[in-house]
Amino acid sequence: MTRHPHRTATTGAVATLAAATLLLSACGTGVTPASGQAGGAEPVTVDNCGQDVVVDGVPEAVVGMHPSQTELLLRLGLADRLAGQAQATTQELPDDVASLAADVPVIGGDTPPSREDLLAVQPDFVYSPTTYEFTAEQGFASIEQLQDSGAAVYVATGGCADRRMSGEVTDLFTDLEDLGAIFGVEDTAADLIAESRAELDEIAAAVADVEALRVAQVYVDGTSLSAIGAGVEYDILRLAGSDNVYTPEQPAFADFFAAEITPESLAAEAPDALVFSVSDAEHEAAAREYLTSTFPDMPAVREDRLIAISAADVFPGTLGNVAAVRQIAEALYPQEL
């Protein structure tokens, strides 16, 4: 699989993702051609977040609601169909596709766009990592308002509520299959799926016989410490060959993928490695300083296994999920990869 440049994201984007998980609705999948349209491309119906999303013909004014989604649309060859890119300042697009979006209007800055700004570009298809971006109470356009304006709305499968707590990296493949059918780019979507599957298969073979290291995934915000124990984040560590300290079976993660913890409780676990997501270089430096100074005797610190990953790479429905699996596996088992 082609390695993509490291992505950056703001702390606000991370907070947005955490808040979003409280507001999602159940997700499913399945692509079926609809009937009844005369002329042009046939309409397509996909089951997304427990609802039928009906797309009448190939969309021509598409908005990616986060750079991770915009990147996926660009890699599917849909640059000429983009009417807007949202939250564009939270994450730089990879160098090899950034130029394709140079003329695409930026809406929303580092937050989801306002109702007025999103509707102003007259989208007919909106693709989002979560449903938080459609929270009317925050001043965003709701799914219903977008549908009333003629836009279809698609949420990344791993960002739906039922999948958010049990999401897997391979949920991305559902999104690619659905988008391939909607935009008539099935072959390109299939190629991306094949590349990603090959990447995951290569990593799985490399770590199959390792003595798994105990790994804790945490998030550091100043001196506030949270553990990550469910969702696609958990699956990323699992696929990288780790023995996860925090798991979905633990009561702390029964309802939410993250839980605030004390430094003492983390120290007691004595993990061999720490994985922590960061929004930018400054955040990484601050988090690394906190972890090294707070836990000098922890095996993860003594063995220099503090693994920073981009917060954008754990957003649901992003190729970054696959890149994060490799990054973590290489850091944990450098002799195997």
UniProtKB/TrEMBL annotation:
It comes from the Bacteria. Residues 1-26 form the signal peptide. Belongs to the bacterial solute-binding protein 8 family. Residues 61-336 form the Fe/B12 periplasmic-binding domain. SUPFAM superfamilies: Helical backbone' metal receptor. The lineage of its organism: Bacteria, Bacillati, Actinomycetota, Actinomycetes, Micrococcales. The keyword Signal applies. InterPro entries: ABC_Transporter_SBP, ABC_transptr_periplasmic_BD. This is Iron complex transport system substrate-binding protein. Keywords: Signal.
